[in-house]
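Q: What would this chain look like folded?
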Amino acid sequence: MTSPDTHNAHPWIAALKNSLDTLETALLQGDAAGVEQASAAMQSVLQQAPRTSEFAVPGSTLRHDMQNAAQRFAQLRSAVLRATAQSERAVGSLLPQQALQRQPTYGRIVKPNALGGAGRGYVRA
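A: My prediction, written as structure tokens:
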């Protein structure tokens, strides 16, 4: 899953891509402990991000590579949210009493609003 241009990438981008690969592998294997460890490792990598000025260096691919990594992370997050919602629907149909005790991943928070209108939506990850 590592792209061929990783050896030319900024060292931080290489570490970020590596942590994305690890997270994706754990997700595909359904390894909950591995996902947790990969998420913690990714958080550590993100905390070591280069200074903003490094993104503007002429000829640097850091900004482009970062955008690609962010897009990949968003895709992984969407896949996890979809899988969670499917799991909740399955639990709801197989174990209706169990489903009543949990809040759904996708839902609405309905609060009275002085201006009227619907409540605001939320996503729980």
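DSSP finds four helices and two strands in the chain.
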